[in-house]
Amino acid sequence: MSISEKSERKGFIQAPALSENMLLAIIAVGFCILHILTLVFLVPPSAVRTAAPSLEQTLALYD
Question: How many whole angstroms separate alpha carbon 29 and alpha carbon 58?
Fold first, then answer.
């Protein structure tokens, strides 16, 4: 591989260097997404999200 081929490759795959603040922001966003996914998939449903009692059961309390 000649020197000119190396410089052509280097110029083809150049990514701008990210600043420290940008890297920290990306990590923070990933951390939040991970926690939201954990909440959705691993935490059991609460009593509010379970099925509501039937109308007969609700009305039986008032008889």
Answer: 44
Q: How would DSSP label each residue in the chain?
A: --HHHHHHHHHHS--PPPPHHHHHHHHHHHHHHHHHHHHHHHSPPPTTTSPPPPHHHHHHTT-
Q: What is the rounded distance in angstroms from the CA atom of residue 2 to the CA atom of residue 5?
A: 5
What count of Cα atoms within 13 Å lies in the side-chain half-sphere of residue 6? Answer: 3
Query: What pLDDT does residue 58 have?
Result: 74
Question: pLDDT for 2-56, tens place per residue?
Answer: 555 555 556 667 778 889 999 999 999 999 999 999 999 998 876 555 666 677 7
